[in-house]
Amino acid sequence: MEKIVILTGAGISAESGLGTFRDAGGLWTQYRIEDVATPEGFARNPALVQEFYNVRRVKAAQAEPNAAHRALARLQRDWPGEVVIVTQNVDALHEKAGASGVIHMHGELAGALCAVCGHRWRAPEEMAVGEPCPSCGAAAGRPDVVWFGEMPYHMDRIYRHLAEADIFAAIGTSGQVYPAAAFVHEAAAAGAHTVELNLEPSEVSAAFAERFLGPATQVVPDWVEMLLARAEG
Ligand code: APR
Counting Cβ atoms within 10 Å, is residue 189 exposed (0-12), middle (13-18) or buried (19+)? Predict the structure, then answer.
């Protein structure tokens, strides 16, 4: 049966109350990327960076998955083939909705990483400047999220999934950040049918064979319903 690979971005969590980055009022209109989402920013002002992620971590922990997250979890359960979710998001709303095997290419707010030894552990809700590493003891705990200038996680696995995709869907992403924005080209080159589900056209909309415009909580459940009806024949 057909393999479905799905890429999600901040737009799928918008209706759960979590901010996007580049919409009006988005996070990058409130903070400068170079201050809070780069290794240089962390070195310059670790307190600002820890605070930026502590606020987001607390908010994400309190957020509930929405109908779009739940629809993807349902697709994973009921679709007769493999469904792989790759997310740029650092929240855990796919998992809270019941999805499994979610690939977090930009890391997770719930994760802490030691900048000295590379040890990973579950982040405290509020991480301090100089958070001690439970493994090596260095006061070097940082959010386990991928900053600009750092390599996204799990790329080999992701490219393998894209090469095997029969259907590739991008949901709630502006298509402005690479390598994720190029996934549609990888999937199309492998012969996948490509679908974009987004509130408005993205930077890469022209690359998709099919588009559904609207809020994720409307267009994603409708798309899943259509796929499952088709699978039942
Ligand atoms: N339903 C569907 N789509 C929505 C909704 C919604 N309710 N609200 C917003 N969107 C769309 C916007 O139209 C936009 O195209 O979601 C997209 C959000 O784009 P960005 O804010 O750029 O977020 P994203 O694409 O996930 O950013 C990618 O950039 O800053 C880095 O690491 C960060 O993972 C992030 C990456």
Answer: exposed
Ligand 1 pocket member 10 (CB < 6 A): yes
| 106 catalytic per annotation | yes
CA distances from 129 to 55, 140, 143, 149 (A): 14, 8, 11, 22
CA distances from 209 to 65, 85, 228 (A): 28, 20, 19
Q: How confident is the model at residue 1 (pLDDT cuts 50, 70, 90)?
A: confident
The total of other beta-carbon atoms located within 10 Å of residue 143's CB is 26
ipTM over 0.95: yes
Question: How many whole angstroms from 19 Cα to the centroid of ligand 1?
Answer: 9
Fold of the domain built from segment(s) 19-62+108-145: SIR2/SIRT2 'Small Domain' (3.30.1600)
Q: Is 13 annotated as a binding residue?
A: yes
Question: How far is 100 from 103, CA to CA, in rounded Å?
Answer: 9
180 carries a ligand binding annotation: no
The superfamily (CATH) of domain 1-16+65-106+152-233 is: TPP-binding domain (3.40.50.1220)
- E strand spans, the chain: 4-8, 83-87, 103-104, 107-114, 120-122, 141-145, 167-171, 193-198, 210-213
Is the pTM here over 0.95, yes or no? yes
